[in-house]
Specification:
- The protein is α+β, with helices and mostly antiparallel strands.
- It has three domains: 99 residues, Rossmann fold (3-Layer(aba) Sandwich); 70 residues, 2-Layer Sandwich (Dna Ligase, domain 1), CATH 3.30.1490; 251 residues, ATP-grasp fold, B domain (D-amino Acid Aminotransferase, Chain A, domain 1), CATH 3.30.470.
- It contains 16 helices and 22 strands.
- Strands 13-12-9-10-11-14-21-19 form an eight-stranded antiparallel β-sheet, sandwiched between helices. A five-stranded parallel β-sheet has the order 3-2-1-4-5, with helices on both faces. A three-stranded antiparallel β-sheet has the order 7-6-8.
- A hairpin with a 5-residue loop joins strand 15 and strand 16.
- The longest helix has 27 residues.
- The radius of gyration is 22 Å and the shape is globular.
Length: 472
């Protein structure tokens, strides 16, 4: 087993990995920019090293991180999610320095990171994929011709895209013409590559993803599925495990597809195979994420499997500790990504000092975060503040527990998406367990309701303070 692991990340996922290391008796090493000097992951790690003044450059410097890991005496690097987690150059740099990269090989990361190559690999493995271009599009004229063949609407996607970026839906030739150069520009800025490809748009699908684990001894299993259909602009907001929208036969089928995909590409460690489920009940492979997911928490909650610990064990060369038949699920779990955003102002980021913070608790509630009272949320990173995870035996009870936990939580000094999530949970369509990726765009009134709720709650709080002082 490893002696010391450098965590090439920040925030709540770094704290999550540090906690896993502590339970396994492994020393943890944090890295930080000046903007993160007082972050919780810096405080909790056994050692911490500065990356300098630039808030982003250090986290994205492959060779600096690999060299720092070697200098600190680390024998492994965990990339977390985001930043360099799906960059094959970091995996390669670690390997060349004799340091274990906690994830798949650089070759597999590169192959699955190229969306057109991933599609071809899945077709060869017999998985269903959405109709689309054979490879990358060479020109706008080729894109227009392909769109006519597929039929509108179509999805224009960055070949190296991920995290919902570099994707545009096109409903007409005019929209395709307007979006073609835009997606190329987004892809170049975000991923350093200008290639794009096209897929037929599955209108209002359900987004179903399957968590997989695979070791270097030929064993691969799935840990059931997650439903990530509640999203805004391709960014996930609320995730659920298992999906309340599929039956047991579909569950076994899509889980089996994910294991086939995992073995077909020689994948090792934890990964996620993502699918779209159309209105006719057909699954289509979308992509494979070669890292830990933000929403791994709900899979841990329903299965009892510590996915981060399994990542570390697999990277150390150990075989999986359980077979597919040993993995059971129980109840339903929901994760809320509480973001520092203002729903009233088109979800504009809300950064600054947190004057007070109260975490929710009670039965079936888990909180993953890196914030605390007095912490200043910097403007340079993702706006997610806290992940609230709730569990209950039934779907209905899980929704009710989510409402209670969201109301329990208190974040003062900045605006958050909590009022908006409360409106979603109160929606009959959501509570019935019947929704798709068009839910958020199809219910703009929920944003208005959440803003009114916030005003009413503030007015009630002010009224209570006035009444208390009057009583004195």
């Amino acid at each position: 087993m490893f002696r010391k692991i450098l965590i090439a990340n920040r925030g709540e996922i770094a704290v999550r990995i540090i906690r896993a290391c502590a339970e396994m008796g492994i020393r943890s090493v944090a890295i930080y920019s000046d903007a993160d000097r007082y972050s919780l992951h810096v405080k909790k790690a056994d050692e911490a090293y500065s990356l300098g003044t630039d808030p982003l450059a250090g986290y994205l410097n492959v060779h600096r991180i690999a060299n720092l890991a070697a200098a600190a005496g680390c024998d492994a690097v965990h990339p977390g999610y985001g930043f360099l987690s799906e960059n094959p150059r970091l995996a390669d740099a670690c390997t060349r320095r004799g340091i274990t990269f906690i994830g798949p090989t650089a070759e597999v990361i590169a192959r699955m990171g190229d969306k057109t190559e991933a599609r071809q690999a899945m077709i060869a493995a017999g998985l269903p994929v959405t109709p689309g271009s054979e490879g990358n599009l060479a020109s706008l004229d080729e894109a227009l011709e392909m769109a006519e063949t597929l039929g509108y609407p179509v999805m224009l996607k960055a070949t190296s895209g991920g995290g919902g970026r570099g994707i545009r839906r096109c409903d007409s030739p005019q929209e395709l013409k307007g979006n073609f150069e835009r997606v190329i520009s987004e892809a170049t800025k975000a991923f350093g590559r200008a290639e794009v490809f096209m897929e037929k748009c599955v209108v209002n699908p359900r987004h179903i993803e399957v968590q997989v684990l695979a070791d270097s001894h030929g064993n691969a299993i799935h840990l059931f599925e997650r439903d990530c259909s509640i999203q805004r602009r391709n960014q996930k907001l609320i995730e659920i495990a298992p999906s309340p929208q599929i039956d047991e036969a579909q569950r076994q089928y899509v889980g089996g597809l994910a294991v086939i995909a995992t073995k077909a590409v020689g994948y090792t460690n934890a990964g996620t195979v993502e699918f779209l489920l159309d209105s006719d009940g057909r699954f289509y492979f979308m992509e494979m994420n070669t890292r830990i997911q933000v929403e791994h928490t709900i899979t841990e909650t329903i299965t009892g499997v510590d996915i981060v610990e399994e990542q570390i064990r697999i990277a150390a060369g150990q075989p999986l500790r359980f077979a597919q038949g040993d993995v059971n699920r129980r109840g339903f779990a929901i994760q809320f990504r509480v973001n520092a955003e203002d729903p009233k102002n088109n979800f504009f980021p809300s950064f600054g000092r947190i004057s007070r913070y109260y975490a929710p608790g009670g039965p079936g509630v888990r909180t993953d975060t890196a914030i605390y009272t007095g912490y200043t949320v910097p403007p340079y990173y993702d706006s997610m503040l806290v992940k609230i995870i709730v569990w209950a035996l039934t779907w209905e009870d899980a929704v009710s527990r989510g409402q209670r936990a969201l109301r329990d939580m208190g974040v003062y000094g900045i605006k958050t998406t909590i009022p908006y999530y409360l409106e979603i949970l109160a929606n009959k369509e959501f509570r019935s367990g019947s929704f798709n990726t068009g839910f958020v765009e199809g219910h703009p009134e929920l944003i208005e309701y959440s803003c009114k709720r916030r005003k009413d709650e503030l007015a009630a709080a002010i009224g209570a303070v006035i009444a208390a002082h009057a009583g004195l």
